[in-house]
Amino acid sequence: MRKYKFHFDHETLSYQRVKISFKALIYKSLPKFATSIILGIAIYMALSFVIKSPEEKQEEEKKQNLLLQFDYLNRKMADAENALNEIQKRDDEIYRKFFQANPVPESLRKAGFGGVDRYKKYAGMGNSEVLTSTAKRLDILSKQMVVQSKSFDEVIELVKNKEKMMACIPSIQPIAVKDLTRFGSAFGWRMHPILGYLRMHEGIDLTCPYGTKIHAAGDGVVLRADWAGGFGNCVRINHGYGYQTIYGHMSKLNVRPGQKVKRGDVIGFVGSTGLSTCPHCHYEVRINGTPVNPINFYNDMTEEQYDEMIKMSSDANTHIFE
What we know:
CATH architecture of the largest domain: Distorted Sandwich
Largest sheet: 10 strands, antiparallel
Structural class: alpha+beta
Strand content: 15-25%
Radius of gyration: 46 Å
Number of strands: 14
Helix content: 40-55%
Shape: rod-shaped
Number of domains: 3
Oligomer: single chain
Distance between the termini: 126 Å
Order of helices and strands: EEHHHHHEEEEEEEEEEEEH
């Protein structure tokens, strides 16, 4: 800024140099200076949104790397969840079903974590939503793995007890093949021969001579050995693992409640007590309380004997016995 200015003198008709005071100089320069300051600040603020400092660039890179790591972690968790779902499916539908064990309740497998305080520590952090959702997912996955691990512990115990279980499963026919005359009533719906109305026949009727030995179909404990209404003299055996067998219409009982029996033990003798029209053994197999067709469990026959038994069952006159 110049400290002097020139003024035209009309009397002398010449330019005279006039010194500018410091105060005048300040006043004259202030508008331009203020404008420069304002413009500079505006330019700085504008550029600050476009051009980041090295520190800001470094922080942004860290943030992006962290988000990429979370994305990778979530994809890995998705793979783990899919694998765990397949294991759970096999556990319920194959392993546990094979050993007649109840599947793990869905409510237990899918149980989450209640409340928000568990993840309160992530509030206010950068990417808190990503942190919270990932933490929840990890917690649920960890709990499901613990549940599955315990389930496999149970399956391992079932495997260890397999020999004992196989001995308990009712897998032989209670009447010896050589003593079997024919089938009376097969498993399924039939017109009751005495009561005269349609009724589910929850077992099979094995026709044989009066006094024929009746054998326990598997290892177990006698639950009942007494008179049981329409079943007459009846024996009920608990084999464990959800299996029970019932033997009805006996002429004589050969066991007592609480007695342990082995597969093949004689538990009674064929008769015609209760709702019956001739000597036979009414035989039932139940799994967890549900009646099932007993002929699906026989393994003490040759292929020819089994085929003959199936034929006899399908040809059975369903209007003879209770």
